[in-house]
Amino acid sequence: MYIYKKIINSLLNKSGITINGTSPWDIHIKNENFYKRVFFNGSLGFGEAYIDGWWECEAIDELIYRLLKSKLDKNIFGLKHDILNNLRAKFLNLQKKSKAYEIGEKHYDRGNELFENMLDKYMNYSCAYWKNAENLDEAQINKMDLICKKIYLEKGQKILDIGCGFGGFLKFAAENYDVSGVGITVSKEQFNFAKEFCKNLPIEIRLDDYRNLSKKEKFDHVISIGMFEHVGYKNYRKFMKVVSSVLKDNGLFLLHTIGTDTSVKATDPWINKYIFPNGMLPSPKYIAKAIEGIFKIEDWHNFGIDYDKTLMAWYKNFNNYWSKNFKEENKFYRMWKYYLLICAGAFRARNIHLWQIVLSKNGVDGGYVSIR
What we know:
Elements: H1 2-13, E1 28-29, H2 34-51, E2 55-56, H3 60-69, H4 73-76, H5 80-91, H6 102-108, H7 112-118, H8 136-150, E3 158-162, H9 168-177, E4 180-185, H10 188-197, E5 203-207, E6 219-225, H11 236-246, E7 247-260, H12 269-274, H13 284-291, E8 296-302, H14 305-325, H15 331-348, E9 352-360
Parallel strand pairs: 3-4, 3-6, 4-5, 6-7
Antiparallel strand pairs: 1-2, 7-9, 8-9
């Protein structure tokens, strides 16, 4: 046990993290088996040890920020589970059509009450845009309006939202731009919520996979907000071909996705097991390869730092909801708290990004004007 403790303590000290220290980002150990668990199980063991109450930290977001900023995560977190995840992703299509509804069942169908108390009034479960915004509701309205402006949305047009979530964007667009639309989701809970949320608007919500879209149905514009992370690198090209087949020749496609600097085939083992099964983040290389010969890049906007602020707002809402309705913490609370805060820390460290990419089939006549 001593050798594991010595190694991990030494690595943590290099990033300004002290075991049982006084800073908000310092780790306080409650179970000495923590060191061995992290040494052999990497990020999965680190996260599971927190869920089990083996360690505490006042500011997990700042802890993760420091780990990632100093690049110590690669030294502290073992490679065993990363290797296994990558092998699975290499030899299996983890996001094939028959598995499309798994993410809905395991993540988005946890219960709408959780999301209603955590998210904004439009139920956006994706990065907000905080420019000139003072709260989460304003920042999410900013994001939706930004998307409408980026696709040059006009009255009377028809849009497709792939991965429409709870229907917030379609509701906003219909109410504020006088358009109609279709939204698809693989979550039964989101499907039922979105149908009611968009009631009496020219919006159709479908419980369906993007691969079932028919090229006979055409849309003026297509958007996809926070869904591409579930598509998988083996399906990126298929996804782009499907979008192209339903998009009118002069239409625009806006892809809103989390991304990473390096091309990977699988996600973090803890995130994969507890939060987003079979997910993975695209890289610029993967996206460029997927759109080659299909789309032209009109605009690529990175505002990942806004996701840090969004996640911290979600955590505040979640924490308030929990404290009002439950007497004490349990494993779900610790898991969800850990998820929100480690993601905030990762965006803060610029380890992952949020991209809005505008694509056209034939190029915008006269050139595309970028909107911020």
